[in-house]
Design goal:
4 helices; Alpha-D-Glucose-1,6-Bisphosphate, Chain A, domain 4; about 160 residues; alpha+beta
């Protein structure tokens, strides 16, 4: 019994499977863009602060969050400033509800900036840049799956 509990905890901590991620990212919904937008905002604010919102365009972004190169959140210190070192990542997740063939889709895209040692300005990394740490894609995938889990009753046939 004890081993089953430990195994269950280990499997739960692994995150979504590749099949779950693919299903979430390819899902088409019959619900209105506003319904999907509301679901996405509610799900996202469980783990992230919401930043810029364009309700009319069915798009929003999370507030900027600073992470270490390894993916640990860096908290503000005295005066509300985060001491970003070389390799630190500033991440914003952009969530959009868009029309597509067969229904509406929800797309999560990272906007990633990386601090470079010796440079006063971080460099932007495109989502497909090989320099984007794997944990950034993991956060995108986890949010995509969480939104899908909350909206799956609205999937298009």
């Amino acid at each position: 019994m004890k081993w089953a509990l430990i195994l269950g905890l280990v499997l739960a901590a692994c995150g979504p499977s590749n099949a779950e991620i693919k299903t979430a990212k390819m899902a088409r919904y019959a619900a209105s863009p506003q319904t999907l937008f509301d679901i996405a905002v509610n799900v996202t604010q469980r783990d992230y602060k919401i930043g810029e919102v364009d309700a009319e365009g069915a798009r929003f972004a999370t507030a900027e969050q600073i992470y270490s190169a390894e993916g640990g959140r860096q908290s503000p210190g005295a005066g509300g400033f985060v001491n970003m070192g070389g390799g630190s990542i500033m991440l914003v997740l952009i969530v959009e509800v868009m029309s597509s063939d067969g229904g509406n889709v929800v797309v999560v895209t990272p906007k990633t900036f990386q601090m470079v040692s010796g440079s006063p300005k971080p460099r932007e990394l495109t989502p497909d840049d090989p320099s984007v740490p794997g944990w950034v894609h993991g956060r995108v995938d986890a949010l995509s799956v969480a939104i899908y889990q909350a909206a799956k009753q609205h999937t298009a046939p």
